[in-house]
Design goal:
The complex is a heterodimer. By secondary structure, chain A is of the alpha/beta class. Chain A has helices at residues 115-125, 163-166, 171-182, 222-229, 243-255, 286-289, 391-399, 403-409, 420-425, 432-447, and strands at residues 3-6, 20-25, 30-33, 43-45, 52-53, 58-62, 65-71, 76-83, 89-96, 132-134, 138-139, 148-152, 188-194, 209-214, 238-241, 261-267, 275-280, 298-302, 309-311, 323-328, 334-335. Among the domains of chain A are: 3-25 and 104-255, Rossmann fold (3-Layer(aba) Sandwich); 368-447, no CATH class. In chain A, strand 16 (261-267) and strand 17 form a beta hairpin. In chain A, helix 3 crosses helix 5 and helix 7 (391-399) packs antiparallel against helix 8. Chain A starts with a strand and ends with a helix. Chain B folds into two domains: 2-35, no CATH class; 57-373. The chains are: A alpha/beta, B mainly alpha. At the A-B interface, strand 21, helix 9 and helix 10 of A face strand 1, helix 3 and helix 16 of B.
Chain lengths: 448, 389
């Protein structure tokens, strides 16, 4: 039996360019692991440019927690170590060899292993970093015993990939992954599905607590799900991951090697034929976008349009992302734009006449659509923020760096992605996700 | 349009840092962003943003006030004629009379207010905020038709500086700027703001120009006088003297529909203001010592500035309560106190202004307690976990 949760607050932004349900396999030439994808990780490199690596060879580790290592998804040669300001490592890219070699981590049945053995296998193979924790949304600490592990099996963000489609023939790997996860917590492993997935592969696995969610975005955000299932308290941790990550864990135990394969959805209004691509973790996007992008100045985003990271045409898919979005840049002026009827403008508010066409799908660009102002409207963020938290008050407490207030108002329960919709609808055009991330980083510093 | 854009791009560098007119940057920016939505693109956080911005928000609120404004214009002319004994309901002549009264008021309010805003934006080096677009039309609408232009100018400048800019500008103010202007005039020049001479622009001597509120109040203060109110429906449509925009409850309700439909103002506040007013009205009915206390609570809703205040003033998001529950409490108390002041205090025929200003001050306190309830709930959860561990 499954628990049913109804999310009422939120907003579905309807965009053009949803991925067609076909998978195209593309060869991998280059892929990269990007340290900035991991909050709170200070990378210590273990390889140099030109080194030969196998799939599963460590590339770098976290200086502050040295058992967390990051391994190469493919075998080949380290192509480039790209650095930014103050020599911060931005990207370690590996050029794939035609013949793939794998580091052998040994086949094992997770059910017959103890917790320490499961943890060690995951750490060594570099699979571990896919496990993240609330609070702080950082990589999970293997020494913790989380209160629960959440698998958010659906993504409700704009144009998000369908995980049930991606994992439809992977029942075995999924079950093996869940068996391994069960060893990691004394609590439950939760499988959170949307009501549309009630007959999918996710509802057939055993050993999990099945929770069904319905309602608009952010129903698929893990914070929303934790808040409904069992709110996070001070001192507790919850670990979370996405279905493709569970498959990775499962394949590690079933095959004894790091299987980096990932299915990525290429979406957005500027994609000629939006569809799914079978490639590897951290793949370069150029193979996908080649000849498949409309003319004009475009923005490439690893992830969805609300929370994703801006990348270059020559960039790589992020470690935690299963989606690449391409939308037009909005660096144009609009004459008297604030006074137009706005049939082509999407708004949460009913101030443009586009409210008369609720089913229309939009081609939205990256323009701010206005200047930055102080907070003016109130009570609006709450309409797209389903947690039992006052979003504006929490953001204000972060702005004045009041640690006590931040704690009391619920900073442990949130991640920056939870504020993406608030940021989208803000008429004052204030960058909330950055503010919240700064607040979380401040809490990490204060707590350690 | 291309030529205009090219011209702006050509002169823009002169207003930027190091340019000839760098001191006028905020002013230039205000005009540029008025003409064109800027080309700034997202770099942090969400890559797409809602089409609605502060300009659009304010324009919608101004649009919502248009019905009240148009009726106010007509009513000025109608009341002028009535005062010399002619009941002329012709549309255009009355409207034209009113236009000649109201238009200068609006121009003066905008020039004085925006001028002050531009100066402050320039000194502080930030963009000109759009908040005054709304205040600039609100201020004339809550003035008596007879108000001298210089008073509007002085009170507007006072309100923008002391009601808003000293707190940090739009979004930071504690008191509603338009009501601050009204209150300033009320206490500085009481003779021009109340009594029975100011409600009609060019008064003849055929009838008294007292508002229903003035009449009602004199019935309680002058021994032996009786209370006769105009017909409730007449007051609902707005055929009575009063501040320019406040008389027609019907026109105000049309504005309320626009505000609620577009999501630009809180229906919770509007609803609870009316609920609070009705509650106080019924309580007075029950007590019933004077004729004024015995009038129908519904008459209170259509008299004076009650409806106008509930729809356009109490809902100002910056000065109202910010939490959902807080909005109900805040609104209810406004309605409650407005009727109480009206009936009890002989010095103030209208209680709406004072009630809203009072609750503006208390709104942060209400929010504090609402938020503390949330904090307490969270801490209780933590305590349960800790005691189990």
């Amino acid at each position: 039996m499954s628990n049913i949760f109804k999310i009422r607050k939120g907003l579905d932004i309807k965009l053009l360019g949803e991925a067609e349900k076909t998978i195209k396999e593309i060869p991998t030439k280059v892929c990269a692991i990007k340290p900035p994808d991991f909050h709170g990780v200070f990378p210590k490199l273990l390889v140099q440019e030109g080194d030969e690596v196998k799939a599963g060879t460590p590339l770098f580790f976290n200086k502050y927690r040295d058992n967390i290592i990051f391994t190469s998804p493919v075998s080949g040669k380290v192509r480039e170590i790209r650095r930014g300001a103050k020599r911060v490592v931005l990207e370690v890219s590996v050029e794939a060899a035609p013949e793939q070699e794998f580091v052998d981590f040994g086949i094992a049945d997770p059910n017959s292993l103890d917790r320490a053995a499961v943890v060690e296998k995951m750490l060594k193979s570099g699979v571990w970093p896919i496990l993240r924790q609330r609070p702080y949304s950082i990589i999970a600490n293997p020494d913790d015993d989380p209160k629960a592990i959440m698998i958010s099996a659906f993504d409700s963000a704009p144009l998000a990939p369908g995980f049930a489609f991606i994992a439809k023939e992977e029942e075995k790997a999924l079950q093996a992954g869940i068996d391994a996860l069960k060893k990691l917590t004394s609590g439950k492993v939760h499988m959170n599905i949307s009501e549309k997935q009630s007959t999918s592969v996710f509802s057939k696995v055993t050993g999990v607590e099945l929770n069904t969610f319905s309602g608009p975005h952010p129903a698929g955000n893990v914070s929303t799900q934790i808040n409904r299932i069992s709110p996070l308290n001070k001192g507790e941790t919850v670990w979370y991951l996405r279905p493709q990550d569970v498959l990775s864990i499962g394949r590690l135990f079933l095959g004894g090697k790091l299987d980096p394969s990932r299915i990525i959805a290429l979406t957005g209004s500027e994609v000629g034929k939006p569809q799914y691509y079978k490639t590897v973790l951290g793949a370069a996007i150029d193979e996908m976008i080649n000849g498949n992008i409309k003319d004009g100045k475009n923005r490439y985003i690893s992830g969805n349009v609300l929370t994703g990271t801006k990348i270059e045409k020559t960039g790589f898919v992020g470690f935690y992302d299963s989606q690449v979005s391409v939308i037009p840049e909005g660096d144009h002026y609009e004459f008297l734009g604030w006074g137009m009827p706005g049939l082509k403008k999407f708004s949460f508010y009913y101030t443009f006449f586009s409210w008369m066409t609720p089913r229309k799908k939009y081609r939205l660009d990256t323009n701010y659509n206005g200047g930055e102002r102080a907070f003016i409207l109130t009570g609006k963020f709450e309409q797209v923020f389903p947690l039992d938290i006052y979003p504006m008050q929490l953001v204000k407490s972060i702005m004045i760096e009041d640690i006590d207030a931040m704690e009391n108002l619920g900073i442990y329960e949130v991640d920056e992605e939870d504020f993406a919709l608030c940021e989208f609808i803000s008429t004052s055009k204030i960058n909330l996700q950055k503010t919240v991330r700064d607040g979380i980083d401040l809490m990490i510093k204060e707590m350690n | 349009m291309k030529a205009l854009r090219n011209f702006i791009d050509k002169i823009k560098p002169q207003f930027e840092k190091g340019g000839k007119f760098a001191k006028l940057q905020s002013t230039f920016e205000a005009f540029e962003t008025f003409l064109y939505v800027p080309n700034r693109v997202t770099s942090l956080g969400s890559h797409i943003r809602d089409a609605n911005d502060t300009k659009r928000t304010m324009i919608i609120v101004v649009l919502a006030m248009v019905p009240a404004m148009l009726f106010g214009m007509w009513n000025i002319g109608y009341q002028n004629n009535l005062s010399i004994g002619i009941a002329d309901i012709n549309l255009w002549p009355n409207f034209w009379d009113g236009f000649l009264v109201l238009f200068p008021l609006i121009v003066v309010a905008y020039v004085a207010g925006l001028g002050t805003e531009f100066v402050f934006a320039q000194i502080r080096g930030h963009e000109v905020a759009e908040g005054f677009l709304v205040s600039g039309i609100l201020i004339p609408l809550i003035m008596p038709p007879d108000v001298p232009l210089w008073m509007v100018a002085v009170s507007t400048i006072f309100a923008v500086i002391f009601g808003k800019e000293v707190f940090g500008g739009t979004g930071m103010n504690i008191l509603n700027p338009a009501l601050t202007a009204r209150a300033f005039l009320f206490f500085a020049y009481p003779k021009h703001m109340s009594g029975d001479k100011v409600w009609i622009a060019e008064q003849g001597d055929a009838v008294s120009g007292a508002t229903p509120l003035g009449d009602a109040l004199s019935s309680t203060t002058i021994p032996g006088s009786s209370l006769t109110l105009p017909d409730t429906m007449d007051m609902f449509y707005g055929f009575m003297p009063g501040s320019i925009g406040e008389t027609s409850t019907l026109a105000i309700l049309i504005g309320a529909l626009v505000l609620i439909g577009s999501g630009m103002a809180s229906w919770r506040i509007m609803l609870s203001v009316f609920a609070g007013g009705l509650a106080m009205g019924y309580i007075f009915n029950l007590a019933g010592n004077t004729a004024y206390m015995q009038i129908s609570p519904w008459d209170h809703m259509v008299m004076g500035g009650f409806a106008f205040g509930a729809v356009f003033m109490a809902t100002d998001p910056v000065t109202a309560s910010q939490t959902m529950k807080g909005k109900y409490i805040y609104g209810f108390l406004i309605g409650f106190f407005a009727i109480m002041v009206r009936v009890f205090n002989p010095a103030y025929p209208e209680g709406m202004m004072l009630a809203i200003l009072l609750m503006n001050v208390f709104a942060p306190l209400i929010d504090h307690y609402v938020i503390q309830a949330n904090v307490k709930r969270r801490k209780k959860r933590w305590a349960v976990v800790e005691s189990a561990a």
